[in-house]
Sequence to fold (342 residues):
Amino acid sequence: MAAHSHHSSVENENRVIPPPQTKGIWRVFIILCVITAIEFAFAFIMEAGTLRNWIFIILTLVKAFFIVGEFMHLKHETKSLIWTILVPSILLVWLVTALVTEGSYINDIVFNYFK
Amino acid sequence: MKASYGKLMMWFFLLSDAFTFGAFLTAYGLMRHRHQAYTGSPDDFTFSTAHWPIPEKVFNAFPGFHGVDLPLAFVALMTMILILSSVTMVLAVEAGHRMDQKDVQKWLLWTILFGSMFVGCQAWEWSHFITGSEHGMKLPDGTTFFGANLAFNEYGPVLFADLFFFITGFHGTHVVSGIVLLIIMFISTVNGVFQRRGHYEMVEKVGLYWHFVDLVWVFVFTFFYLV
Fold:
């Protein structure tokens, strides 16, 4: 064990470490910060409503695209892996749509049935 | 698929985890629409079990600024901390590709630090939510109840507090397990395990998990605090 680690440390000293390539990473960070700031601004400038909610949802999906695509590297994986992850996720969109509609329906039954 | 077995399985786990969080947020959407929405002007808003609260009115406190109305400021700060921890995680993975042990150690430590800061902020947020406001809520037996637990909630319908505890709590649990994994990665890096192995793929896999936790928070921030 000791001999082995000694050997690898010698190897490390002789090896040249390439310089970091971090420009793209910081670019994504700035994009994410700006989008969060825009969301935060919309929360105060705009009146609450359906339009504002859709702006929030779209901005969130843009942020998700950058996190999954760049940080999790999915954009640069093979096509089959990209689709394996994306297709099941689409089911969630249906789940949310269906159950939010259901919630509005229950609300209508509870509060308006005897009117 | 060209991805290694371990990475592929991490992706499948994260997909299943996305469904768990998706179910939580869907339940929130359902319950929110099942309750009456507040229709008056935001300035006249009062806490009541008759309507769903406006999040900006519930989460408007900041440590050290007692009584000052700072809507969502603390959550925005938490979001920035978590995004920053995601960036330091990518930097650790990038250093791993270059087999730069020192840099991997440095960026892993930063990620652990920002992750712990996030959990600390959440602990404060929870304690503030549980302690409650100064006015509290009048109960039928004449006593006043402050804050919230799983059965009573001064901010609005009981389910609002329940979903807050479950969604942010489940996310916080994920952050804590992420920090544990990161500490294990840090110890292994310091011991030179990955250097001997010839690659830092394990750091990459933990990185995938960590970014996922950040991704979930982005959705929680939108659907719990903004919408």
In short: Chain B has a mean pLDDT of 93. Chain B touches chain A through 58 residues (CB under 8 Å).
